[in-house]
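Attaching the record inline, Q. Sequence:
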Amino acid sequence: MFFVITKGEINMNKFYKLNISLVSAICLLTFPSLYSSESEAADDAVDEIVVTARKREESLLDIPESVTAIGGADIERQNIKNLEDIGLLIPSLNLSPRADGFPNVSIRGLGSFGNTQGVGFYLDDVQVFSDASSRFGDLDRIEVLKGPQGTLYGGSNIGGAIKFVSARPDSSESFKRIKAVIGEQSLGDVEISVNAPLENDWAMRIFGFTTANDGYLVNPNSARVNGGKTGNKKNIGESEESGFRVSVAGPMNDTLSAYASLRWNDYEGPNNHWIRELDKNDLKHPNTVDTTTNPRHIRDTVSAMLELTWEYDGMDVTSVTSHTDTESTRYSDLDISQEYLLDLIRPEDMKVFTQELRFTSTDDSSIQWLGGFYYSMYEEKMRSELIWWNTQAIGDNFTGPLGCAAGMDTCSGVWAGEILTLEQEQMSLRTPFELRDRDKSHLAAFANMTSTYDDWELGLGLRIDRWENESTNLDSGFSSGKKETEILPKLSLTRFRDNGSIVYFTASKGYEPGGFNMTSLTGSTGLLGFDKEEATSFEIGLKGRSEDGKTSYSVAAFSIAYDARQVEYHVDQGEEGIVEGIINMGDSEQSGLEVDLTHRVSDFLNISFSAGTVDAEWKDGAVAGGVDLGGKTPPVVPSSGINFTADYLKPTNNGNNLAASLQLSKTGSYEGLQAWDPVTNPSYTLVNAQIGQTSEDWEVMLNVKNLFDEEYYMDVQHFPNYYLLDGGDSIVIGTLGQPRLVTLSFSYFF
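Structure, as predicted:
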């Protein structure tokens, strides 16, 4: 088996080390005195977790691939409300919650950074393209699928998938809950969940929330060169978000059932949490952003979905239809200074339609199968402009910063060392940045089958994925298109052991479609294309639980060949300005080991431990910025990660329960986004804690995030030094992590 895994240019020495580690772990976990096939699970056994990673309900321990699930109770008690909270719980997941709706996320070093996609986000089997940073509440669970998910989920899932599974309407119970949270940073948060049975076995579920937060970033509004002040709001991280989701479910006749939902989300807050650093070797982690324009993002999303399921003898037919409309406007101060120099405004309108038709076997035969068809249409309109302050057009020349950026003799203003009056500062000229229309269509046919014989299961999957990408730059008039067809196979072999554990081998493939870059400071750059990236993954693992059911475990080793990696970049193109876009940097390889362990210590105490390590490097031939990257570490690949969680729930003398929880997470160091001159983001360790009282009707919890007030960045990178005041070609920006935050929550059930 190991010789099969090493095909595809895998580093043998590195993988042998992983094999030794894996074998050692297997030997320890399968010691005969601890595990047996004869005993029934104890009453206080670890709960069985059911997931839908393979688009059918299965036990987490029966799936031949790495999946992590966070249950609804943990989501509520730990106040998991944003993407950063999820990322800190899973060592192999690196997640930075960009407010623009496109998070920086990687799994096992594969995924999206900046403008690339890479990891898919899903809400109830509907992929979320435009507002992945939105808040999704009232959840049954969150599933994190690790490694390429091309066969069942298609392109844009090369690193994996994150699935938010809603709590569905239930006709068997009436449920109402209100939860309020107050805390530091003037945080106020209220959410309500209602489940109401209707007639004829139908039910309705309603979730709504509103939240406001001053944030942790401050604009000191320092005096400009001429002594004036901007008068911006001090709380640069101030945000407001509201939303609701209404869903209904029930039978339409004896064989047909329906589930429908309508979702709305409205966000206004910082466009990003970038902090400016001047020395990449001495990161200060300030919480001040001294700018003339506070970065802001306004986003409004309306989404509807309809799921229909027909039940036949031995087969279910499921149709999932969705439409999402997102309107977004982002404001950025590109010079990140207290001077009026260069701003960016990005209005954007995105419409997404998806349709999936799925056929699933439901009998008890040894062969189980699933297949179907998928279609999506993504339409984007971008009308972004650069705002050049203290700038005028004089014939074919420009004064101010634009004249300086273009190298003209008319260069003037602060960039030229001049002190400007307020009237001179307020003069502005707008130039196009991204004036584009982009249409992406996706058509696919997929199938997956498992065949069981004695103690063995063979899994075979195949997807034919067809992407078409049409882009038009309205400013330059350039237009072009790409068409790609990809074959995405998957193979798994599983051995079901007598003690209830499984040993498995899985090979899978994923890819991210290519596209076009259309941005420059002058708006004159044509359509610069980039090609698809591909990843082939091999994984071996072990899953199971102890004889008494109190311990569940999972061990996985993987090796991945990552070809034609898409990497975001900023390049000075001379008269064309600084171009922002994506290029195919080259090939890399990575291998790693992951361990997950959950143990019920007593009737009152549960602990879980997970750890992961990734060893990644560029292969020879990867070149960027004139630098040979061979042997170097690719960006945003944490070397290691650890998470430990302890949950305590014990009845008290007053008939209530004492609830307490502790989470510790450590993220290893990694390189920032600019591959040829990276900034090293140091490792960091965070501790969260909760304690409170619960009863059948209410819950009160004290929650502390980042208990020891660790200073850290979730991502770092070089950024163009547009205004040239501090010298050098670039500065360093980082997304500052949440400092210590104390909140108090109260929930009431009625």
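The radius of gyration is 26 Å. The first strand starts at residue 50 and ends at 51.

More tomorrow.
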